[in-house]
Every structure is written in C-alpha cells, then in structure tokens.
Backbone:
C-alpha cells in the first residue's frame, strides 16, 4: 500500500521532469511514439520503486538509467528494427534531403550506432553529463564510456567525413 506522500512526491517529480526525460528517450530511440512508450515504461518502473528510493533527489538519474537500459534491451529485440509504412516513397524529382543538410545526416548516423555507443554520445553531448555521470547511468566504468564515445565518433567521422558543418539553430531538432 502506498502512502499518500509517496504518490504526491512521485506526481510532482513526473510533472517537473518528464519533458527532460522525454528528450532523453527521444534521443535514444529517434522516434516520437517509441520515446513516449519508453518514457511511460520507465516511469512505471520508477513508480514501483519509489518507496524504496533512498534519495528522492536522485530519482531523475535513476529514471535516466532505466531509460538507457530499457532502450538498449529494446534494440536487442528482433522486432525492433521492423518499421511499418503506409506507402513507399516515390523516387521521382529532386531529392529533398539535399535541402535538409548535415543535421539530418548527423541524426541518421547517430541512430545507426549500436545502442551503447549511442547512449554514450547522447548522455555526454546531448544531455551534457560528465564522463563519471554517464558511466554511472550506463552501469559501466569511465574508461568504457570514453571508449564508447571514441569508437562512436570514429564511426560517424568515417561516414560523414572529418569536418561536417555544424547545424544552425533552425536545424537543431528538439522534441
């Protein structure tokens, strides 16, 4: 049985931090609906563990770790890579991707990375966490985080070239 104070504290946490947590989920999945599902599942797990949390001020870090580990486990599922589509795109006329530019290429390369490498990049550079904080959330050592980031950036450089133009403020995607 839950205490009313636990329910109130959890509700306040969700209300205050869900936008930031959704951003992490979106960056991990690259899909709006999947990010909603990932956040929902993570918040359900946090709700179940809420009475056992020793420090409620660490609930956001705990939730981010659940988002990362759940996203990684989802990527391992065979069905994750299947995407339904209503219609196949027509290859007639000019290619619209030229207009979109480097930012789309960066996001596409990010989503091609293995889940742990993507998690390391997202937590380090999109969420602006330190190597130690990233290692704690990923459940690994700081050296592993450094290696994951190094390898991931190398893969992205191999596919995009050494010096892609930085995206402008208009190109940056925020959910």
Residues:
């Amino acid at each position: 049985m839950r205490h009313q104070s636990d329910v109130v504290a959890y509700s306040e946490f969700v209300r205050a931090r869900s936008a930031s947590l959704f951003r992490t989920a979106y960056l991990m999945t690259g899909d709006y609906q999947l990010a909603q599902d990932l956040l929902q599942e993570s918040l359900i797990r946090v709700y179940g563990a809420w009475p056992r949390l020793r420090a409620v001020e660490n609930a956001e870090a705990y939730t981010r770790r659940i988002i990362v580990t759940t996203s990684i486990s989802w990527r391992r599922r065979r069905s994750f890579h299947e995407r339904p589509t209503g219609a196949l795109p027509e290859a007639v006329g000019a290619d619209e991707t030229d207009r979109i530019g480097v930012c789309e290429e960066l996001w596409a390369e990010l989503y091609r990375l293995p889940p742990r490498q993507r998690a390391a990049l997202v937590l380090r550079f999109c969420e602006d966490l330190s190597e130690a904080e990233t290692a704690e959330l990923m459940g690994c050592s700081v050296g592993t985080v450094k290696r994951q980031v190094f390898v991931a950036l190398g893969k992205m450089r191999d596919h995009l070239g050494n010096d892609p133009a930085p995206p402008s403020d208009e190109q940056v995607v925020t959910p």
Notes: Helices lie at 4-29, 32-49, 59-76, 97-100, 102-112, 115-126, 131-138, 142-160. The two ends are 36 Å apart (CA to CA). The chain is about 65% helix and 0% strand. Residues 97-160 form a domain with the Arc Repressor Mutant, subunit A fold (CATH 1.10.10.10).
